[in-house]
């Protein structure tokens, strides 16, 4: 278990790392620092300080980096667009398409992005278990493949 200092002599468990699936374009923009806010159609309850493990979807199909959740904001799509449009790395048309029919949007502010020295490929993850990357996001569980759980522990500090 990962622990963080709470106060002198006390330790609290760190938040469970969050595995985010992103299109390669957006994963790279986050790692380059040009995209500092990621969007989700559902509320994300992970607290600030949560380790974000970045999975780049097809054709890359690998965990390519990590970052830290700096903050989260859930509001109407129009409000999220007004607050964060310059940090999203997408056009207003792409934003509108993504949130069509949605009543709420969640903005995840991302800090300290770091590229992994060697991507953790889907093939390597599946060599350890029947791993399935999430469509959007999910928490990393102790039952996930050991290369993923070990990465989460190593990068959480």
UniProtKB/TrEMBL annotation:
It comes from the Bacteria. SUPFAM superfamilies: PUA domain-like (SSF88697). Residues 20-59 form the ASCH domain. This is Putative transcriptional regulator. The lineage of its organism: Bacteria, Bacillati, Actinomycetota, Actinomycetes, Pseudonocardiales.
């Amino acid at each position: 278990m990962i622990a963080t200092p709470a106060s002198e002599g006390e330790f609290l468990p760190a938040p469970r790392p969050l595995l985010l699936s992103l299109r390669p374009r957006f994963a790279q923009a986050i790692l380059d620092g040009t995209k500092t806010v990621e969007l989700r159609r559902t509320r994300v309850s992970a607290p600030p300080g949560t380790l974000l493990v970045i999975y780049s979807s097809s054709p890359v199909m690998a965990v390519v980096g990590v970052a830290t959740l700096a903050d989260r904001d859930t509001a109407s799509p129009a409000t999220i667009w007004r607050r964060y449009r310059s940090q999203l790395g997408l056009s207003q048309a792409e934003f509108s398409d993504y949130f069509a029919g949605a009543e709420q949007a969640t903005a995840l502010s991302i800090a300290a992005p770091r590229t992994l020295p060697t991507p953790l490929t889907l093939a390597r993850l599946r060599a350890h278990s029947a791993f399935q990357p999430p469509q959007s996001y999910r928490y990393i569980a102790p039952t996930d493949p050991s290369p993923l759980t070990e990465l989460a522990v190593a990068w959480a500090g």
